[in-house]
Write a structure and sequence with these properties.
This protein has 192 residues and is α+β, with helices and mostly antiparallel strands. The protein folds into two domains: 2-79; 86-187, 2-Layer Sandwich (Alpha-Beta Plaits), CATH 3.30.70.60. It has helices spanning 2-53, 55-82, 86-102, 137-150, and strands at 105-111, 115-119, 122-135, 154-165, 170-187. Mean pLDDT is 78; it is low at 78-84 and 185-192.
């Protein structure tokens, strides 16, 4: 019987060993399955990266860069065209001062595209402005007169006045077109 007692520990040890080997085999099988799945995902990701980073992506990136450059160029030229000369800013301030002195309300000042022209033989930048004002008829006429006197680098091109009450002259409004001149070039030879 002594032999039988020594066999039980061997049988138990063998059973534990077999169970451990089976458990390790199952863990190894799960790891192999996970590794295979991860390798497949990595392969797919590498293919996608190669597709996106290949020549097609480079061409698409170059096309987008060209479009961006074209848009930025357009914005730059538009900004240059819309930039108001410093003289126009000064004129706007003067317009408000003249309006206040004439007791009229300056409703709107609209700048049209900058052009070039000549004033007394001098090449100038010409900024056309449209000024909308409201007030009594007498005050509107005073405003237009002051424009001609106070703005030495501007010329009143036209005045359109409308009066709501012709009997009293109240409720009148005017739209005044101005040409604001600013020096830009050389003095033109008057002898030519």
């Amino acid at each position: 019987m002594k032999m039988k007692r020594t066999r039980w520990p061997l049988v138990i040890a063998g059973a534990v060993l077999v169970t451990t080997v089976i458990s390790l085999s199952l863990v190894q099988a799960n790891q192999d399955t996970a590794r295979a799945r991860l390798e497949e995902e990595l392969r797919i990701a590498e293919e996608e990266l190669a597709r996106l980073g290949g020549p097609a992506a480079t061409q698409e990136q170059a096309a987008l860069a060209n479009r961006l450059q074209a848009v930025l160029s357009g914005v730059s030229s538009l900004a240059t065209g819309l930039a108001a000369p410093a003289d126009t800013i000064d004129i706007n301030e003067e317009l408000f001062i003249i309006a206040r002195r004439s007791s009229v309300v300056l409703r709107e000042v609209t700048a049209l595209p900058l052009t070039s022209g000549e004033l007394a033989g001098v090449e100038c930048a010409v900024q056309p402005l449209t000024v909308s004002v409201e007030g009594s008829l007498d005050n509107l006429l005073g405003f237009v007169s002051r424009l001609n006197i106070d703005l030495q680098n501007a010329l009143v091109r036209s005045v359109d006045i409308s009066v709501a009450d012709a009997a009293t002259g109240e409720g009148a409004s005017a739209s005044v077109e101005l040409l604001v001149y600013s020096y830009q070039g050389q003095i033109i030879n008057q002898a030519d």
